[in-house]
Design a protein that fits this description.
Layout lengths: L2 H7 L4 E6 L8 H10 L5 E4 L11 H10 L4 E6 L5 H13 L4 E5 L20 H12 L16 E6 L7 H13 L3 E6 L3 H11 L4 E7 L4 H10 L7 H9 L3 H16 L5 E5 L7 H7 L6 H4 L1
Parallel strand pairs: 1-2, 1-8, 2-3, 3-4, 4-5, 5-6, 6-7, 7-8
Helix pairs in contact: 4-5, 5-6, 8-9, 9-10, 10-11
């Protein structure tokens, strides 16, 4: 059983982080980022061609995390693979020791650096969760028996800021029915909106609130204008604009959000976007100490 699953099922509050595979074969930056995560987070997500930008395989990076003593949350999107490739890659992940899997449909190809690529979308995130659940039961999507089942702790994404919200509630419930046991949310900056989403959802599932670390007002404005499902209040943008040290202010804002969200979620998913060095200070400011199993 993965540490992430064990802690959540035991009622412990968890923190997860995130890394993006390199655009190339030099993984030294990933290994450097892991130094700031170790001892502070339970698991680290690996993105899968995020924003449809071509990068190294998240499966290879998952193996690097495992080799460096960090538990991965392996993200896999339906955008680039048909059902054969998706099942094959999931089996490969299980062989390598991956247990936490986050199933995503994937961003539109037009957003990325290869807009001429042909999207696949043979399955969507709900269908992929169902497929991975079948693998856990020892059979594939065609009903054929596996020589050994997988043991995935399956997760998905949700967007508490969706407008209208009801379709997002319906889709989130479908993901739960298909096998999702935990959710990492789109970036949240208004805790009450997430609280309302959880109340309306009314399902027994683990929720990890996503927070993208904001290093400047410019970044916050860009996210508001260009990333669907993200709403950063003007008060936060004003704080960043008036700060003499925007990065430090971003640390303070993130820590404050962690404290507020901790009251009603099962964990926090921190997305520092390549600035993992801020993670220890964010968590210290929010009142956390290093994980005992990592420092004993």
């Amino acid at each position: 059983m993965s540490k992430l699953r064990k802690k959540l099922e035991n009622g412990e509050f968890v923190i997860t982080g995130e890394v993006a595979p390199p655009k190339g074969t030099d993984v030294s930056s990933i290994i450097e980022e892991l130094k700031f995560y170790k001892g502070w987070v339970t698991a680290v997500n690996i993105t899968d061609n995020q924003s449809s930008v071509m990068r190294a395989s998240p499966l290879a990076i998952a193996k690097i995390l495992i080799d460096n003593g960090v538990e991965p949350v392996y993200q896999i999107t339906a955008r680039d693979r048909n059902r054969l490739a998706l099942q094959s890659e999931l089996l490969g992940a299980s062989i390598l020791g991956v247990e936490n899997v986050l199933c995503l449909t994937g961003d539109a190809i037009s957003q990325g650096d290869h807009p001429q690529a042909k999207p696949v979308f043979d399955l969507d995130s709900v269908q992929m969760l169902y497929t991975a659940s079948l693998l856990n039961q020892g059979k594939d999507l065609a009903g054929k028996k596996l020589n050994r089942p997988t043991n995935f702790f399956l997760g998905a994404a949700c967007s508490p800021n969706a407008d209208p919200l009801e379709p997002e509630i319906i889709k989130t419930r479908k993901k739960i029915q298909a096998g999702a046991k935990f959710f990492q949310t789109q970036a949240v900056y208004e805790p009450e909106k997430l609280r309302q989403f959880i109340s309306d959802l009314n399902e027994d599932v683990f929720i990890l609130a996503g927070i993208v670390f904001l290093k400047s007002a410019k970044m916050a404005k860009f996210m508001n204008e260009n990333i669907s499902g993200v709403e950063i209040p003007e008060e936060i943008i004003s704080e960043l604009e008036s700060a003499s040290d925007p990065v430090q202010k971003g640390i303070e804002i993130t820590a404050r959000l962690v404290v507020e969200l901790k009251k009603f979620v099962n964990g926090i998913h921190l997305m520092p976007l390549g600035k993992a060095e801020v993670v220890p200070e964010i968590l210290t400011t929010a009142g956390f100490s290093p994980l005992q199993e990592e420092v004993s």
